[in-house]
Structures are given as C-alpha cells and as structure tokens.
Amino acid sequence: MQATINAITQILGRENVFDDPATCLALARSASYHQGKTFVPFACAKPRHIREAASLLSFCNQEGIPVVFRGGGTSSLLPAQPQREDTLLILSTGLNRILAINPENMEAIVQPGVTVAELAQAAAQKALFFPPQPWSAAVATIGGAIAVNAAGTGFLKYGPITNYINALELLLPTGQILPCHGANGFGISSGPPIASLLAGSGGAFGFIGTCALRLLPIPPHQGWIIARFPDFKALSSCVTALLPIGVVSLELFDRLTAAQLLGSPAESPLLAIEIQGENAEYETVEIVAQHGGAPIPLPEYTEKRAAILPGLFSAKGPFILTQVASPPAQLSILLEKLQELAADTPLAVMGHAGIARLQVAIFADKTRATTISSELFRLSLLLNNALEKETDLALSPDAWLAQHSELQSVARQMQKSLDPGGILPPLPPLA
Amino acid sequence: MKHLTPYQLHKLDACSACGLCLPVCPTFAKTGLETASPRGRVALASGIAKGEIKPADTLQAFLTCTLCGKCAKVCPADIPLASIFFGIRKGLAGIPLTRAQRLWPALLTANQKAVDFLQAPLALAASLFPKSTSMPPLAQELFSYATPTEKADVLLFPGCLVRRFNPRLVDLSIRLLEKLGCSVILHPALVCCGRPLAVQGKSIARALRKNFALLQKMDFSILSSPCPGCLSMFREIIPNMAELSTEERQFAAELSAKCVDISTLALQKLPRDINPGPRSAHIWWHRPCLLDDGANYAEMQLLRLAGCHISMPSDSAQCCGAALNCVDLQKFHPPKEESTEPWHTPSKKYPLARMLPAEIRRQAQGSGAEAIVGACPACLLKITGASTPLDRLPMAHALEIWAQLLLEEPFPWRSGA
User: Is the distance from CB of B225 to CB of B159 less than 8 angstroms?
Assistant: First the structure.
C-alpha cells in the first residue's frame, strides 16, 4: 500500500495526497441518507490540474485500484463514498478555477471543483445567471452537481443541470481526455449529445473535467409565496391550476417537513411557490385563495428549506431517502398512496410538486425501507405509463421492470467498454 | 469518552454530514481541507467516541479549530459543536504548548491582586525595549477597583485580556452602566473564566471553583462583560461541561440565564431622547465570532447612533483566530518549499494564525475605513498585532466609540493616544 501511495505522490506531489487516518476517516462519509456501511478509503488524492487527474486515473487503472470521486459531498441521494476498503478517493475540490465567463457566448468555462455558488456569483458579476441552484450550492461542486444531475429550486422552470451543459471533458481510466458535447453545445449540430449521458451517472463513466456551461440573462425580480392548504387534495388542484401561469418553482411539504420548515408543529401541508415578474404575485395569490390556500409569512425561506433534511435527521432519527415521481396530473393519487403507506411506516414527504417528483424519507430499518422504496418505484411506473398508453405498449410494472433491466445492462456494457478494468464506481440503481 | 456529556454524545450521531457548516468555517475557507471543517471534525469526534481512530491522530484537526462557534449557529441539527470541540480537546493527550503557554494555568488562576502587583514593573520593563508589532504592550496602569459590594444590578466580569491589556474598558463600562442607572459589582478576586485553559485542553475546575465560590455569595441579576469570550463561556460552554458536579451544573445554568451583553443592556436602558450623532466616522465592523445575533444588532445600532458609517465583510467566515495562539501549532506546519497551499506556507511560524487576521486587515484597508472596530478584547489584540509598517489601521473596541453617546469621549483613534 505504501508503494502505491508513493507512486501517487510522484504524480500529484506530497501536499496533494492524504493518507493520514484523520483525513481518510473525515472523508469516508458523505451527506447521503441511505444508512449503508461506511468504508474508509486508504488515501485521498487532490489533483490540481486536469492532466494530473488523467495520469492518476490511468495509474489506478494499471494497478487495479478502485476509485470514487468526491466534490462537496452533499448529495442527499447518491453517496460519494467508497463501497470497499481499498478505494482511492479522488477529490475534485483542488480543480477550483473559473477559467472564463463569456457574456458574448453566454457561457462559463469552469473546472469541476468550482462550487455552484462561486459560479453563480461570478456570473452575476457579468449580469448573467446560472439556473441550477441546489440547496447545498455553497458547498456542492459543478462536477458533483453534474454527476447527480442536480436541479435545485428552479427545477420546474429551468430543469436540471444537464440542460446547461454545452460541452465537457470526460477523463477515462485509460488516461484519455474525451471532449463531449451537450445538447446545446457549439460547433456540433448533429449526433447524440454524449455529455447528457454523464448527468446523473454518479461518476460511473469517468471523471468530469473542465465544463462549458450555458448561462442565461438575469431574470426579473423573484420572490416566494408560502401557502398553507387544508389537505393534499386542495394542494394538488392548486398545483394543476398554477402550472399554466408559469411559476418558477412549486414545492410541497407534508406535515412533518412543514413542521421543520416552520419550526413549530404543523397541522396542514404547505406549498412554496417561487414567482417571477411584477404581476405574478397578484395572480398567484388569487389562484391559491380559490383553492382554499392561505398565504403565510415565512422569512428566510431558502435558508430554512436547506435545513429541512438534516433537521429531520436530527429530530426524528435516521431515515432512508428515496424519490418517487409521477406526471403532475396524478399528483393527488400519488400523495394519497403515500398517505396510505404512512399509516404503517412513518414517512416524510417533500419536493417538486410542479413536476411531481417527491423526496420520501422512510423512517424504518433497511429491509423495510427497501420494500417500501421498491413499492414506490412500482407506483411511479403505474402512474407514469402515459407513453405506453398512447403507443399501445401498456405494460405491467413487472414487464416494464424486466425490459428496463435489459436497458440497465446496456448501460453496464457501455460502462465496461469505457472502463475495462472496472475501477470506476458502479452505476446508480434505478429509482 | 468521559469528556463529553451523554447529550453531546447523542448529538454527535445527529450529524447527517449535510455540509451547511462548511461555508461559515474560517479554517475551511482558508485551507479547503475536510479535516479543517466542522463536518470533518464531527466525523472525527464521532470516530474517537466509537474507537475508530486514536485521539492522537486528530490533533491537527482539532487544534486548528478557532472555536469560533459559527458552525453551531448554522447547524440545522442543533449540534452543540463548540462545546463538543472543547470537550474533545480535553481528551486529547499531548497538546503542544510553548513554555510561556505552559504558565497560563498557574497565572490565570492565581490570586489576581498578586498578579496585578507584578504587572506594573513588567509593563515598565517591556516599555524600555523597542515595540514589537506581534505582541501588544501590557497596560501600565490598572483600573481602580470599585469597592466590592455584595448586592447590585450588574456584576461586571472584566476578563483577563481586558484586565491586563485594556483596563480602560472596565472604567468605561462602569461609568456607562452607572450613567444608565445600574449599580455595578466589580470583584477584584474573580479569576479567569477558563476559556484559554479550555482551549489548551486543561481542566478549568480550579478557576471555576474559585469564581463560583465568590459568585454564590453575591446578589446580582445580570452578569455582563466587555469580553464576549468570557460571556459565551458562562452562557454556553461551562453549563455543558462534562466535569461539573450536579450542584455546579445547576449554578452554571442559573449564571447562564443571567448573562447579558453590555451593548444589549446599554441599548435597552439608553434614554429615548438621545441625539444621534452626525455621521462622522467610517469604520470597518469586525463582528466577533462569539457575539450573538442580538448583541451584534445592539452594537451596530449603538455605533450608528454614535455617528459611524459601517462597512463590513460580505462573507460570514471571518475570524481573527485568537484561539490558535493558545497552543503551539508549529509542529503541524511542516515547511514544504514546493507547496502552493497557504496551509503549508513555509518558514512562517503559524501560517493559519497569521493569515486569518491579515485577511481581515486586507478587507478593512480595501473598504477605505479609518479604523477597524470590534467588540472583543481578543480580536483587538490579534488584529492590532497583525498590523504591518504599511498597514497601521487602528482598531478599537465598540464600547470606546458608543460610550461617547453618554460620556462625551472622542473617537479613540483621534484622541492622540
């Protein structure tokens, strides 16, 4: 092991390789709510140049050392942590330079270790706006945000980070640096946008290097309206009514998460609506009132929103976090089913109501939580078969899962061809 | 882990590693190292408690913590991080100290009147040598003690730094409080609050017992101090210490409820008809980390009333790092010539301890302010000590400025002193 560390030191320099027990233990865990076992990496490496990272990867490939990439370590669903003892943790935080902000191209060129907040701040100085702002933006890195396809508050209007990748470099275990273009990149007008495949891959296809990201003009004044609803039914109908007027974000909170948000016990669910423009407020408040909602004052909403999951973890004990999604029109059915499930096992629900993608915290042991989480996945499939209905492909969830596992194996084959030595982290499971 | 209370141990498990504490941590901002961040330190504390790591391996992580407590203020899980880090320090064996630092426990808990007696000749001797920028001079004249009475509205706890380096603050505080209609007790035999000793990982039992024995005899409704370090010690740290007995814990809780910052008190009692001064000074406000939000608000209100135009930093991760000077960090900064990491800056004695105040001075200079104003005697010493021949921006305690509202004092940096 010492020989390996010496060799890595040769590549990166002594000050960028950490093999002391304190650093390894401190970096062993990331902010994921999955209750998995923690493995301590044998060393952590912090490359300072993209080329160093490429040589490091090719060295690990030669020696067969499994690697895991870590940015800010703040993803709540995909853990940036080793799955076995002999892993090398590669930190992207050393690659933290903003190379250019080009207002002419509405584009930012950044290294993967730049935090999302740093990029947003640099863009704002040139009167530009980077829409994906996950709740952990101050710590989350661009590389990590792409690896988990983060979206943040404006998911409904702006979509996840994959929409903003013009191009990026993919570092392969072979030491190659592949330039990949995104859906709206410059220069290439046809061919599949390979960069989009990397969004949400959890680093399974390689290390994300320098990225070219799309920027937008700064939007008009934004604000939040927080409204209390008597029940989920009223809330869902309000969501459906608000979608056509073009709000930026619609987030729902059940009683447990609303209590965390308000800091006091809550009797009814909440909806947080982010609006843009001068006249949106009047229209929104009117629609909310028509559906039985009552706006409440809630200063510092964004800070409080970021603190919900960790606060819940501390107040109610450990949980396992999973996601469930449906078309927005089925939101009320989805919420009804969740309420039925909550009768047996305590659940906390919050998330993007506008696209009906909810985060569900399951307060149960791992086996029970896995059962519930697969039940929720089947439920998502049942509610989400619009495409199949239109095309006469109506499938039962079982048949869908069988087909999808084939799709997964295609993805695995792709990973294998990029990473023949099998040193990269595994593909994240379907959920 | 006998140095942590069961509650603190329980709270260690409540950390979900969300990372909301990282942006406010001054040492993480400077180094980018996980071991120099609250999240990393909690992981290590929990590792020590579970026996996953030897305490000796975590020395660098915990000794580079400035104990500013900003992380505890933003923690969504309400983990009492500052008091946990104090507890962990006590369990760390082999904290390196310089010879002078080893004398602290004896000096700070000795009979303070005897130390006062030594101070005048020492200060005189020191003044004969050329002035060094790194060490501020001891005060030559001590404050004149008020007669120790047993009953009053406010007990003024001067704190060692004020007593030794800035005794003028005590005179000012007493005159101010009396002008505001409060009677004040100032007891000469009170010793150190224990903060510097706890930072060194030493037991504070001796200081605590001496102080508690005196305090129990006195009748007061408010405990105040010009030093937010002493107040935060009484308010948050001492009541959560694992080494207290049941009676001591109860008394510590009573004391904790009596703590009020001097600025909060002044703002409450200030006559309504006071005339706000014309805006006549541009200052850089260095918010002491240990000042809570209410006191910070009060300080800024009072400064504005006293005619100050205030500039302040945009980032929240600023700390002068005074706690880093309580231990000997030299062996944790091995010189590495080829490195570009500020952490490993070669040939400087305590790079991190120097970088933190230098950053504050740099920003204050850039703002065009005519003085830096803080409200903590430790920041005052640290930031004044970081001045260079090219940067002689004066620093003052906020009390010295807003005292002019009632006492007709000039701005301290304009008084020619």
Answer: yes
